[in-house]
Design goal:
mainly alpha, two-stranded antiparallel ribbon, 58% helix
Length: 197
């Protein structure tokens, strides 16, 4: 498979992942699926926008670049017909790096949020973080410490876990494009429009 075509496949995969990450982050603004009475009742890590900025917006740029690699202009430069394709593949490495940083940010925010646990009303009637060290992950009987919003713990865990997994997949895809981009930069695109390179 040509490096440009392979990059296009990666771009096609990254677009829905980025959209899903944005949706997960938006859903986290509705604890337990309900509208929060006050923004202070929403878990702090939601406001770090790991899914919206990190694995969402910052992932759209690399995805669009990867999608366009197959159709880029390869008229060449300085008498070298493959120069256009090679430069485009080199540029894709830079954008893949941007994607790695964005997805990495989302992974960190999601990991911290999962370890920290959700903000909820505890048995004493106050809004707080009853799970400080991630100890609730292996002991679901502790989940009863959160009385409101209803089902906030599974809501929090599910959405941040989805963000974590999808961000890891995005990181892997961007890392693959770094390797693909290096191959395309060194060897050119095997299906280039200039001379069949």
């Amino acid at each position: 498979m040509c490096s440009g075509s392979f990059a296009k496949c990666l771009g096609i995969t990254l677009i829905p992942l980025a959209i899903l990450c944005v949706l997960c982050n938006i859903l986290l603004f509705f604890p337990g699926g309900l509208v929060a009475d006050d923004s202070s009742h929403i878990t702090d890590e939601v406001f770090f926008f790991g899914g919206i900025i990190g694995s969402g917006i910052l992932m759209i740029f690399p995805a669009l670049v990867f999608l366009g690699l197959k159709n880029n202009d390869c008229c060449g430069c300085c008498g070298n017909e493959s120069c256009g394709k090679r430069f485009a593949m080199f540029t894709s490495i830079i954008f893949a790096g941007v994607g790695l940083v964005g997805a990495g940010y989302s992974v960190i925010v999601s990991s911290v949020a999962i370890n920290h646990g959700p903000k909820c009303v505890t048995n004493n009637g106050n809004w707080s973080y009853p799970f400080s060290e991630g100890n609730y992950l292996s002991n679901n009987t502790m989940w009863t410490e959160c009385t409101k919003p209803t089902d906030i713990v599974p809501w929090h865990l599910t959405l941040f876990s989805l963000l974590l997994v999808m961000s890891l997949v995005e990181m892997a895809l961007c890392a693959v494009q770094v390797v693909n981009g290096l191959i395309g930069t060194i060897c050119g695109d095997c299906c280039g429009c200039c001379g069949g390179e």
